[in-house]
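> @MW can you paste both from yesterday?
MW: sure, first one:
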Amino acid sequence: MEEPLLNYSPTMLEVRAWFKELKTQEKLDRLLDWGEEQPHLYGFIINLADDFTDEEHEALSFLPLLLTEVFRKTGLRIENVDSATLEKAIHAHSKGKDPEASTLMQQEMVKAWEDLAGMEVNAFQSRPEMTLVSAILISAFELAVPEKLL
């Protein structure tokens, strides 16, 4: 397996702590702002509501805010994820490929998701759809980096 392009783990831990400190209204305001900036990704997440419990879906809705902050802290700018970029990420991962998203970051995203949903650590381990959605989000973000790291 190739080395990941970036090690997001230390930054993700820092961002998770930062996010917990935000007030509920601040989280919601940031989510709405992000939804306007990234309407295709926001729609993708909203469309997953029926696939998860309310707690899981609410936590999923906040994951892109964490990912956005991780990218910002690592100095990466994310352009708008258009429908073609999102489709590329979905197609790659729904076919069992894993070309862009690092396994380590997928694990970090699932841990953050469990934490935000108030679940025990490794509660989602037997739920492959959690890893799939995380991988799609990560890939979409990485594909939207203008410097084209990948």
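MW: second:
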Amino acid sequence: MKRPHRFLALLLALTLLLSACQSASPASSAGETETAAPPVTRKKTTVPTVARPFRRAELDALPVARPDMTEEELRDVCVRYMVMMKSIPWTPDATMKYACTYAQASDTSGNLILTAGKIYQGTPYTSAAGDLSCFLDFYDEDTGVLRVADLKSAVGSVLGNTCSTAAVWSWARVSPTITLKGVPFMNAAHGYVPLGPVQYDFTQDSFNRGQDTKDIVAANGEETMFACYALLKPASGVMTYPRETTGHVRMCVEAAKVVRDDAGKIDGEKSTVLCAEQHSVQNAVKDEVNGAMSAIGEKGKVYTFRQLFNAGYIAFEIPELCGRAAVEPASVSLELPGGDPARVLEGAVTSNYMISRVDALWVNESGEETELGHALGYCYEERARNVPVSSILQRISLHRQFPGLSEIAVTFRVRLGNGETVTLDPVSVPIDA
């Protein structure tokens, strides 16, 4: 009489397990082309530790751009940041599975999978658009483990970058002028400067999703385009937007190496440029310290001028790297509707630089900080330098946390894309229900 009971118990356990699996549904995040879902936590596995994890001190040691820096120093800041993002070793403490519409090397359902137990190099490919600091908020610098369980729904905001957002966060270390709406909008209307003698209308009206960069490159011809590529320096950019793809952007790590033939013409096969880039393909690499890893993106890959030409790449700069604009001191403020102090919850934290994260803090009489809420900056244009207070604080939550009080003093601590953290003066926030 014991066998049926065992069978029924097993059947019940399997039913519950299947029900739990089927109840999980992906949540989408904001993005131009991809949708990131919360991680799927699988059966607990033994998580290896990274032999030489990345330390936040390495990022903190990167200089904050100053107006008196030379062009070479500013370029070095951008390149070092980009290479950091593509070099960081890490391993997830649980398997993550999320959708990326245009990702290569996804499964048959369009999902990317980052597997517990594997060591990766480079921040993941997602439309999240968070900077390296956001990723490190969930990274254990003693073990190199990414705390997937802590990510929860934040995976859509902090987990990684697309090709364009990775490059833009790197340029944001020195630039308060550029904005981003996606690869095809890296044009004059958004602060970018075409490089070399290439001829085309570099404005938003004509250079948009309907314009194929392969047509532009072909119309200008090899000699003109090779002359443009020859001007590439560290932190210069190259972008392509053919109609048949979603486009791509790369950042140069070194100045182009130009080889000319006996007649003085640039040899497109022998002339090269070294680039760093974000992409979704996971390539097997071997590190002297951490051994076998799966590299996401490239921290340095050589491309010939011919390859750039054939793929329709156009060379460009950002204004601060070519004398078109000066580096500015950081400015952060709390903007209130009509300047009314009572309308704090309708205001926004703004800056001239891109915002990485805003924390709202309450400090008690003993000087102890309590986080009341936070919001993450968003690399795309509409949220790059303006974070609504309503996305950081909710009146009803404050009312529950501080019953009986009509207002509370709140301090906003703002982390900027240029590497600085600015703390604003405390403001009185009304919390009456």
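> thanks! The first helix runs from residue 2 to 23.
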